């Protein structure tokens, strides 16, 4: 089966390329995952990103192990792939924002469809060393969001993240934990039970293969997925140098609403939030109503879009439009020719074509790429 | 002496017309204060605003009584009149904002010049029923502002206002209390000593004649002076229906920066501040540095302006420009003719001409008004 082959190829690439892996992503865009995997395996492409691990041909074992733990690999070829949400990463990458590479696939521990879980989702994040004030507010906002059928996305850390997940679960709502380690790795250890509950009532998600240990750099890489899977991000508490600042910056880079909860100006754990209000264009949110008011429009847009596949070019940004307009209606152009014609750099063209394909605007043909009619 | 006559006339008008008195202000703009006072006294003009009190011909006594209490009446004809600051009221009135009438004069208990006191000034205001958190923050911000030679303007009420004044005094700085009663009336009673200290190290200011008792409507009318005399307004704590909201709205109507101190979202006394952040375009300020960063530019502008009288029309708004452009360089036009020519309503023309005169851009001549050269 093609899908199995494709899934095996993506599982392999996720195992051998440490995200973000723009070369591999670009290779997949150009040749498809199966051929890209072959090229990587043979040491013929994306060597910088894959040389160290390309011998780890354990995709079948990874998929099997995941399956044994009620997990699966969701890939862009699946219906449940949250394409609209993740499109923001491709757009940001096309605008030249570094590190915004789309994931090659997502390992998911869940009983639900991933696209449905994040159809209306808000990220609620913050400091590990939260105060009781922050924990209370995070829990309340998450509870109230979940009661309104909004999924709470967070990072499963101690402090604010944990309270956000628990608040959503307390309302019998859905919550998604995006990890910087394998979905089968209980990290932090004290959240083992919490992660199991999240997997039952929501989803535990990661682009790292089963068994991957958390590492400092992986948290930063992971943060882009939290920002991308949610319609907006709420920072509840953050110190001056909190990791939440990174997710906040990514949220803005993706064009999503950034929100911060005010707190006492005398609290070190609110310094980061107030700084986001003053310097990062965050809006002040005190309640779930505030959050929905500020993130709502995008949530609604996303819903409309995913219900009704877009066939026009209305939603495209300028760069995407240039690429689309360069495409022929009949026959086909190579990515190189489109780059020369549109003036858009080749790597961006390579990243954008599959996105335009997902949108139903372009298609592959024998000679390369062309516009899709109707 | 002309000034004495003028001062008596304005003292009379302040006694007989309850502010805001747009008809009387317009009358003064057209005929000058002395003739305006005569017309009012004779019952020939602005009857709606003066009929009830025009018999109270006690200007000389008011001036004498004030003098006995180390107070004086500062009028627009005085060098120390804070013309630049109050110009914002005339501009707002010209834009049709209701209640923005300029004061006819200001009773001042102070050893210092009023214009110098408010050259760099910030309003720090808030709820009477403040929390200890709000009182602490108000005191600290006021202290730090005063240490940087910024005058703290407030309303002398219990709670935040009192802490703001005390904070400034604690730093041996200047502070200005704008009252909704006579400058000789100790209100609130518990602040009698505080008001005396403010009069020594700053100024107690009011447009209400000596002996006037505070009244609910006077606080709202007074608030426009707090907003106008300061380069920006900081709301430290405010409940959902706080009077500070009125001063905040006026601040924005005057085009001045509005700032709010964040607090716990769980505190009823921060609800008003967070609402200002969310819906009124207030910026979040945590420290005096934040306040200076947000109010600073206007403070600097105002300083530059008052040091160096403006001779060009650069700073004029659109309506003022239309009036100015309609004026002849030689001869003179009546206000009526300028109104017809410029399309600006006559009352606005009447209000704007004296302001343009203060700016040195126009002058009165025998036939009416003309541009001032050079």
TrEMBL record, chains A, B:
Its protein name is: DNA processing protein
Q: What SUPFAM superfamilies does UniProt report for this protein, alphabetically?
A: MCP/YpsA-like
Q: State the Gene Ontology BP annotations.
A: DNA-mediated transformation
Tell me the organism.
Kutzneria kofuensis
Q: What family, per the record?
A: Belongs to the DprA/Smf family.
Annotated signal sequence range: none
Q: Specify the domain of life of the species encoding this protein.
A: Bacteria
Show the taxonomic lineage: Bacteria, Bacillati, Actinomycetota, Actinomycetes, Pseudonocardiales
Using the record's annotation, list all stretches that form the Smf/DprA SLOG domain.
74-294
């Amino acid at each position: 089966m093609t899908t199995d082959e494709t899934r095996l190829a993506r599982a392999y690439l996720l195992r051998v390329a440490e995200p973000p892996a723009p070369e591999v992503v670009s290779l997949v865009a150009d040749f498809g995952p199966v051929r890209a995997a072959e090229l990587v395996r043979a040491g013929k492409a994306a060597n910088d990103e894959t040389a160290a691990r390309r011998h780890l041909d354990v995709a079948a074992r990874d998929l099997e192990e995941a399956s044994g733990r009620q997990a699966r690999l969701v890939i862009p070829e699946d219906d449940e792939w949250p394409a609209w949400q993740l499109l923001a990463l491709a757009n940001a990458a096309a605008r030249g924002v570094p590190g915004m590479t789309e994931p090659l696939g997502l390992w998911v521990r869940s009983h639900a469809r991933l696209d449905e879980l994040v159809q209306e989702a808000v990220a609620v994040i913050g400091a590990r060393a939260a105060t009781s004030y922050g924990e209370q507010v995070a829990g309340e906002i998450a509870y109230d969001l979940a009661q309104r059928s909004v999924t709470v996305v967070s990072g499963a850390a101690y402090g604010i993240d944990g309270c956000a997940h628990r608040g959503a679960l307390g309302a019998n709502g859905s919550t998604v934990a995006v990890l910087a380690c394998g979905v089968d790795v209980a990290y932090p250890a004290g959240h083992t039970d919490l992660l199991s509950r999240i997997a039952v009532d929501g989803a535990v998600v990661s682009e790292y293969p089963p068994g991957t240990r958390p590492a400092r750099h992986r948290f930063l890489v992971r943060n882009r997925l939290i920002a991308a899977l949610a319609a907006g991000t709420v920072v509840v508490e953050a110190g001056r140098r909190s990791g939440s600042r990174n997710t906040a910056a990514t949220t803005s880079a993706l064009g999503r609403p950034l929100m911060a909860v005010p707190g006492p100006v005398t609290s070190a754990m609110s310094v980061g939030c107030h700084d986001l209000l003053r310097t990062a264009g965050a809006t002040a949110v005190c309640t779930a109503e505030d959050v929905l008011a500020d993130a709502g429009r995008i949530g609604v847009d996303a819903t409309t879009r995913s219900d009704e596949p877009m066939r026009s070019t209305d939603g495209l940004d300028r760069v995407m439009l240039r690429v689309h307009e360069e495409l022929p209606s009949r026959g086909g152009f190579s990515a190189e020719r489109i780059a020369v014609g549109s003036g858009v750099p080749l790597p961006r063209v390579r990243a954008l074509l599959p996105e335009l394909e997902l949108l139903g605007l372009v298609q592959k043909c024998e000679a390369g790429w062309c516009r899709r009619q109707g």
